[in-house]
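Entry for the shared binder. Reason: the reviewer on the internal report wants the predicted structure included alongside the sequence.
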Amino acid sequence: MPGISFFMALKTSEIVIGVISDTHALLRPEALEALRGCDFIIHAGDIGDPPIIPALRKIAPLTVVRGNIDTEPWAKELPEDAVLQVGGLKFYVIHNLKELKLDPAAEGYSAVISGHSHVPKQETTKGVLYFNPGSAGRRRFRLPITVGRLRIRDGTINPELVTLLSK
């Protein structure tokens, strides 16, 4: 059972959810700029520094989950998973996809949002979008620095990866 639920619906033609993960205590100005104008933001864990949370909340309502590096006392209150319902669609948020303990299709989720791997990825399986925005924090290996956006229009999710800094 998810730690928190955040239910919201907007009456606009398009809803944009910004997705960020693995900041590892570094909230880049490029990431903030890429998230401006979003209706909601999801941080899929490995925040690394508490001031990142209010900085993101200044842009839009925020759903955040705890990642494996979020072990300090400030992070104990953060849930391990969360549910977000927007535009009639249900999103499940978890940091490490390998820890998923439910069947998203059977539970009626439209998308599963995760982080952890630092590898940006979007694929659909059994009608469920699995979306990882990659890492917006410190570069790991030769991976790009990225965030994501989920554009919702007429009950359809259009995912997009936004490269902040390339290899």
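Summary line for the report: Residues 4-165 form a domain with the Purple Acid Phosphatase; chain A, domain 2 fold (CATH 3.60.21.10).
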